[in-house]
Amino acid sequence: MTDLDSLLQNSKRIAVLGVGNEDKGDDGAGVEFVKILRAKIKSPDLLLTEAGKTPENFTGEIKRFKPDLTLLVDAADFGGRPGEVILASPDMIKGASFSTHSLPLSVLAEYIQRETGSTVLLLGIQPKQIELGAELSAEVKSTIRRLTDRISEFYRRR
Predict the structure, then answer these.
(1) 120 in the Ramachandran plot: left (φ > 0), alpha (ψ -120 to 50) or beta?
(2) 119-125 vs 69-75, strand pairing mode
(3) Strands across the sheet with 119-125, in order?
(4) Is the dihedral of CA 6, 63, 99, 143 positive or negative?
């Protein structure tokens, strides 16, 4: 994910929204991502939000923060291997069934982009299981650990 590295490098203020339903296995990947990242990084230039099933409720917080980059982290079924990652622009996710949430992430992304001028991207993690009551799969846990380690290392060097 060299693109993610360059995005982080070129962004001073970053907002990360963890999206998903923690009661549905890998659908909770975005929320778990933010929880782990919060335990690893403390920075006034990083907004970490556990948005859960209603990410639209946190747009005011993002607007006040004024990020350069906003990452929407969510489980995204793009036909990849479980735990595989995609970094997608709002244009790429428009009309796609990346999300199980009531408001399509493409609409949310466009709104945040329009209101803040922020670059908004989906960091999608391919789920393995999204059944009610399921746990996060080993593949998704591994991906979350790898990505959060990478981002926290970036902030240590910053």
Answers:
(1) beta
(2) parallel
(3) 46-52, 14-19, 69-75, 119-125, 85-88
(4) positive
Per-domain residue ranges for the chain?
A: 2-157
First to last CA, the chain: 18
| Number of C-beta neighbours around residue 138 at 10 A | 11
The domain made up of 2-157 is a member of CATH 3.40.1620.10:
no
| pLDDT digit string (tens) for the chain, length 158 residues | 558 888 899 999 999 999 999 999 999 999 999 999 999 999 999 999 999 999 989 999 999 999 999 999 999 988 999 999 999 886 676 544 455 555 678 888 989 999 999 999 999 999 999 999 999 999 999 999 999 999 999 998 87
Tell me which amino acid residue 140 is. Answer: V
**What letter represents residue 23's amino acid?**
D
How far is residue 41's CA from residue 132's CA, in Å, rounded to a whole number? 30
Token code pair at residue 20: 């998903």
Q: Are 11 and 46 in contact (CB under 8 A)?
A: no
